[in-house]
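Chapter review: from sequence to fold.
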Amino acid sequence: MKFIDSAYSWFLRLANLGQHPFLLAIRLYFGWQFYQTGRGKLADISKVVEYFTSLNIPAPALNAHFIAWLETVGGIMLMLGLASRLMAIPMAIDMIVAYVVADNEALHSIFSDPDKFTGAAPYNFLFIFLLILFFGPGFFSFDTLIRWFRKKRELTSAISGASG
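The token string follows.
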């Protein structure tokens, strides 16, 4: 039994080593995809406005520009791992709205036809944004770097305050 416990412990350590590179790979891949989607919308914003109008989205021009910029900037920030959890919220909402407005049939088939739900365009992005929201960007991110600098500054302030 000790051998099994030890082997499992080693397995967990090995699996944990892959967590941060895996999160980085996910952020880079899906951030790039989202960035490209946003840039494509910005490049031909009139088509996006026209599409939003056909879906009866209120203020279609304003919403088209907002979504195009959200996807462009959000994709960049996701790749960098900058304000990742915060950015994951509006990006996930964007995908939920895409389900409700553009893929409503797929949304309603979440239990009756799960393949239709998971095959819809917003699914992968929604899943990734929820993953980032709940698990964070991983070690290889600007969020981690900022946190490290803040802790260092706090430690330096505490030391200089104690000696002063």
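Two observations follow directly from the output. The CA atoms of residues 4 and 61 lie 61 Å apart. The chain has a mean pLDDT of 94.
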